[in-house]
Design goal:
The complex is a heterodimer. Helix content of chain A is 38%, strand content 18%. By secondary structure, chain A is of the alpha/beta class. Chain A has a single domain, classed as Peroxisomal Thiolase, Chain A, domain 1, CATH 3.40.47.10. In chain A, helix 4 crosses helix 16 and helix 7 crosses helix 13. The two termini of chain A are 15 Å apart. In chain B, strand 5 and strand 6 form a beta hairpin. The chains are: A alpha/beta, B mainly beta. At the A-B interface, helix 5, helix 6 and strand 5 of A face strand 4, strand 5, strand 7 and strand 8 of B.
């Protein structure tokens, strides 16, 4: 992919994420995040050229959520585009917004993602897949993941204790993020492994929660970004991969994870990344379950195959490690689905803006973002303090 | 203390009708009438796809060579589910626990996610041989494969 012009994230905003936000409607939730992102970018609604919305409307059972963008996200009288690709909705929305600016189509784009899982039937939405086949053998995201994990554990020798350490790291990080849903700084490996089994080997405390929340970010073309933002977070790479339509089509999904490997390879080539563990200062990756984070370490080239367990054991990806992964607490701590990928991107930008507060990685200049959804769809973005 | 805000309840009871397409029509008819599980083979890469679909996603070639697969196969992945998921065919939570597997039917290159008759983790392992158990009488949909029985030597 050729980037025609530079684009940067110049503002971010998100709601406090929690189990149930019945103090606000969906539209008010969208507005809360959009207003904060505009304030952060020191912009007014009139400064925005176009809007991208990420949301899985089937989960709320309320069609056409892009209607919320008019009053909620400065969208009235402007182009509004909706992205709905399951877990990748947010990162795909973030990529779509970046490309709209990079293409020259717009100078400023507001991307907002939201989900109010408390109002919806996410399980029913997940179950409404292919009526000929999948509906008869549905076990939702947890069951499908659990199947793939049995293969991953067998081939890579990853242990339940190593996976539990991922959850412990996530919740410890989340406790330093005032917006995160689950904040459990004292969580232990023993507690994770003693929590109820949802689908073997996945325990309750190592699965993502169901959250209400919204997140927004503002993109600007180079000229606008340099004028308005002291430390723009330049988008240096974006790549997406989808795959075949049935879960059984994917050969040893978590082991091979070809979509993430391929998207990462393409993104690394765009941004000139050859040694990801050394070059990235921070990563915000989409880990819906503890084991996924370990599989992503391998697919993203942080380590050789079979060494992901060692990475978490050695603290390489902890806040004080070589490459802090998910200072925000990740999807394991906060999962308003349509917002989750926008959160990953916004949190990465926040680090480059130097506005991470207690979760700031000192001096972060190069950040990796990933999204994951459906049957192994993958997104990768790379943000940098260096415009390139 | 602010007054609690309203929540509005909404429910739906609707029915949809989906066209199965020629490939699923043939698949379900063979399953119902002959108890056969049919897959499609790509003329270019020779990959055998289950469920059948009209085109190979790797080669973009139309597939017309039907091949029976199974009814036995090999367990390539498994889990035991304890969380009561919504069963889309009934609208009710599915009784737990239940076993699930990815099964590679003999002759197929893809795997099939389906239910197992085993919920004891200690008796499940990768590579086990399994066999499809069909519903009687069969009705011509995916429910005609009830589950997979673990074959013990």
């Amino acid at each position: 992919m050729k980037w025609r012009r530079r684009v940067a994230v110049i503002g971010t905003g998100q709601t406090e994420h929690t189990r149930k936000r019945d103090d606000v409607s969906q539209q008010e939730l969208v507005r809360e995040a959009a207003r904060r992102a505009l304030a952060d970018a020191e912009m007014t609604p009139g400064d925005i050229d176009a809007v991208v919305l990420a949301n899985m409307e089937l989960f709320e059972g309320r069609a056409l959520p892009e209607l919320w963008c008019a009053e909620g996200a400065a969208g009235a009288g402007k182009p509004v585009l909706k992205i709905a690709t399951g877990g990748t909705s947010g990162t795909s929305g973030a990529i779509a917004g970046a490309l709209q600016v990079a293409s020259g189509m717009f100078d400023t784009v507001l991307v907002v993602g939201f989900e109010k899982q408390s109002e919806g039937q996410t399980a029913a939405g997940m179950a409404l897949t292919d009526p000929m086949w999948d509906r008869h053998v549905a076990s939702a995201a947890i069951g499908n993941f659990a199947l793939s994990i049995s293969q991953y554990m067998a081939e890579r020798g990853v242990t339940q204790e190593q996976a539990a350490k991922v959850a412990v790291k996530a919740r410890r990080n989340a406790a330093r993020n005032p917006y995160a849903h689950l904040q459990q700084p004292g969580l232990t490996v023993e507690q994770v492994l003693a929590s109820s089994v949802l689908a073997w080997p996945i325990h309750m405390l190592e699965m993502c929660p169901t959250s209400d929340g919204a997140c927004a970010l503002v993109y600007a073309a180079e000229e606008v970004a340099r004028r308005r933002c002291p430390r723009p977070a330049w988008v240096r790479a974006a790549a997406t991969r989808h795959d075949h339509p049935y879960i059984g089509d994917l050969d040893r999904r978590l082991v091979t994870m070809r979509t993430l490997r391929d998207a990462a390879r393409e993104a690394y080539a765009q941004a000139g990344v050859t040694e990801p563990l050394e070059q990235f200062d921070v990563a915000e990756i989409y880990e819906p379950v503890s084991y996924a984070e370990l599989a992503w370490y391998e697919a993203l080239g942080f380590c050789k195959e079979g060494e992901a367990g060692r990475l978490i054991e050695d603290g390489v990806t902890a806040m004080d490690g070589q490459l802090p992964v998910n200072p925000s607490g990740g999807v394991l701590s906060t999962n308003p689905i349509g917002a989750s990928g926008v959160i990953r991107t916004a949190e990465a930008a926040l680090q480059l803006h130097g506005k991470g507060g207690q979760r700031q990685v000192p001096g972060a200049r190069l950040a990796l973002v990933t999204g994951y959804g459906v049957y192994a769809w993958s997104d990768v973005l790379i943000l940098s303090s260096d415009p390139g | 203390m602010p007054q609690p805000l309203l929540r509005v309840r909404a429910s739906l009871d609707l029915t949809w009708h989906y066209a199965a397409g020629s490939h699923f029509t043939r698949f379900f008819e063979a399953l119902r009438d002959d108890g056969l599980i049919l897959a499609l083979r790509c003329p270019a890469c020779r990959r055998v796809y289950l469920p059948p679909r009209p085109v190979c996603g790797n080669c973009f070639r139309r597939m017309e060579e039907w091949v029976p697969v199974g009814p036995q196969g090999t367990l390539r992945a498994f889990t035991v589910v304890h969380f009561p998921f919504l069963d889309p065919t009934t609208g009710q939570p599915r009784p737990v626990p239940f076993g699930m597997g990815l099964i590679q039917l003999d002759g197929a290159d893809t795997t099939l996610n389906h239910y197992l008759d085993e919920t004891d983790l200690g008796r499940l392992e990768l590579g086990l041989r399994v066999e499809a158990v069909l519903r009687e009488p069969r009705q011509g949909d995916m429910g005609d494969i009830r589950l997979f029985r673990v074959l013990r030597p």
